Protein: TonB-dependent receptor
Organism: Hymenobacter ginkgonis
Amino acid sequence: MKHSLLILPLLVTSSVVCAQTRTLTGQVLDADGRPVIGATVVEKGTNNGTGTDGAGRFVLRARTAQPRLVVSALGYAGQEVSAGDGPIAVRLATGNTALEDVQVVGSRSLNRTVTDSPSPVDIIDVREVTAKTGQLDVNQLLQFVAPSFNSNRQTGADGADHVDPATLRGLGPDQTLVLVNGKRWHQSSLVNLFGSRGRGNTGTDLNTIPAASIERIEILRDGASAQYGSDAIAGVINIVLKTSTKELTANANYGAYTAKYRFDDKNFDGGNFNVNANYGVAVGKGGFVNLTADYNQREHTQRANVPNTEGIQRREYGDPKALNTSAYLNSKLPISENIYAYVFGGINVRKGDAYAYTRFPTVTDANGNTIPNPRSNAVLYPNGFDPIISSSIFDGQGVAGVRGNFGGWDVDLSNGFGSNRFHYGVRNSLNATLGATSPTSFDAGGFQLQQDVVDLNISHNYKTVLQGLNVAFGSEYRREWYSLFAGEAASYTNYAPGSGIAGGAQGFPGFQPRNEVKASRNNVGVYADAELDVTKAWLVEGAVRYEHYTDFGSNVTGKVATRLKLSDNFSLRGTLSTGFRAPSLAQINFNTVFTNVVGGKPIDILLDRNDGPVSRAVGIPALTQERSKSASVGFTGRAGSILSFTVDGYYIHIKDRIVLTGTFDQSDNVIGSTLAGLNVGQAQFFANAASTTTWGLDAVVANTIGVGSGRLTTTLAANLNRLLVTDVKTTPGLAGKEDVFFGQREQAFVKASAPPYKINLTFDYNLGRFGALVRFVEFGGVKLYDYNEDLNDYGHRLTTDVALSYALTNQLRLSLGSSNLFNKYPTFFNPQATETGGAWDPVQMGSNGRFLFAKLQARF
């Protein structure tokens, strides 16, 4: 009876609302009378919306008595119209004014839309994606939407447990440039040391930017160093923040995994709770201030108890716990009719707990005898212990600038400052050399990266030069700082030298005063590019860029591109470019002693800085820039009025990639005696050790048709990717040591940055208040080598996502669903030999199984 009383008001409300609704139909065309496919049509003041089909038509069941529709599309000026009694006809003008443009990454022309671009660009509507899927953070959203993008969570990877590395087209995390509102964003201070992605690389932590603050994400899948600068070898990810006003959106989300392979009988774990709100206010004519607050709490998963494997290396194995709080601002402040100021940016504070390897109470010695574990203590931990590596991460960036039109020239001057600080802690641990008197928690130190960028961009469009010429030029000054700071003495000190017992905090030895470093450098870059419409059908584009770094010198890159429209429905396009990536300050200066666990035995390894005493002694040269050559060729078009498609093949050759070498020890016949003389047991280094060649294909096919009274959008997106290590270069003194310097195991980690193929098939159906989404993602298999040099062949996997949604009222929508509905896992292998100490490495679709979620979305 109580349940009936609760349901009755809802049914009455729904009935009243339905009685007031009526069906609206219409068509959206451009200025030339051609249909605009995929335009967004939203009933103002509600969460009710739809999109146009292949003929530019739409059907929408209105929920208000006098509906007004807001119609928008990328590359066009938005329009608001009132619904009359008959079909609604909307003509969208091209968004080509200096202050109202929608500029897509990959072109500096204010008249260029994404469909005109000679380079492949993905446009992801974040509002649509977050409304219908279970993923909450940006990395996971892109992992399951953009086939060329790869990211996953890791465990047993020290800092990478807290910062998810991400790659584009299977290259390194630091080979993709990240922009926010078109401005360079700072990288994380973390260097990835473990896991299947990003070993030896730094990268931008996309999860510091809340999805609730993002309007869309643009992915330029093409080399763009000449256009945007260092790091853009694989492409560019541009995050565009929200600009909406007079509208409050709020979301509450919760999901959890169906627990499996635990030591206990819990049914669910990894609970993920997220709540966010976004609101904007209008300022003057065309101005706004848009604010976002986001809170996300994620609990541990536990996947340590996998059956039918050869042994358990860890009692705690799974996703880290994380508490993420963010606040973001985007604003545009009119100064005059043609000039405005802007300020945007935000802060993110993250607290994390990650599992380290178990220290069991006893171990087996070289003679096969069971003895007390020298890295534990029976008084403090009678049953052994599981250290927790904690993180305290502060990330923030702000950009302020002014932009205006002066005599037909668009001028944009800005300054942005960003910082990422990563502070380690260790809990539930000990310093074994202190015995039972040891503390159990430690401050382990950390590192920080800061960046200040002054940016000037100037462009002008000459409409009378042939069919249009856009000229752009500008300059960028960037200063970077990197520092590494020590932890407390007990986190790294050996209080019993000569005892054979390892000192420092178990799980993560703290940074020592000898590791501390403060480094900085300056960079100046200038560029020029031009885009010429030779005819209405033929576009040519060229760009050149010069950059100078104070720590390694200068570099010049260039790019040419073209697009040829063979008809209104079919175009060819292609690009050629050179690129480069400067070694990051973190790669040059990072150094530490870290603990690796091989076959259940902890081993302390020195990672020396690039110009450190051990690196110099064994002949490791100074890091230099990575250089690339890339090309792409493809076509894009429409078949009839309902089908659109793009297909692009690509080639990327990178020379002198910076990687983390294999491990050398005192038994090495070349440098072993040098390591022994420096009292170093084992060591790894950063080096320009490899050259790689990548071949690939991206394809996207989309179809929108009416099914019954509803609309079905079907999307097939695929990425085929093959990376080859074409050359391994050692130092002169280590010639012949290629198998150790960068052998098959390390090469396999580079190749596993992307599966050989990833295919996404999505069906999205909307009918009135009801919506349904079904998505299939096929991940190709990858191959890795474990610590025994055995091949771990992770087979292909197909995951299935399902989501159902219903508009409870005009302002509230409820969504329920599941990611990885059929509970698929990677192939199981020997936990005693994998990189992570679990039954699988962090590959493909993740290792947590089925995820169930519910979302309540409000829009006022």
About this structure: The chain has two domains: 1-94, 96-497+504-859. The two ends are 32 Å apart (CA to CA). The first strand starts at residue 22 and ends at 30.
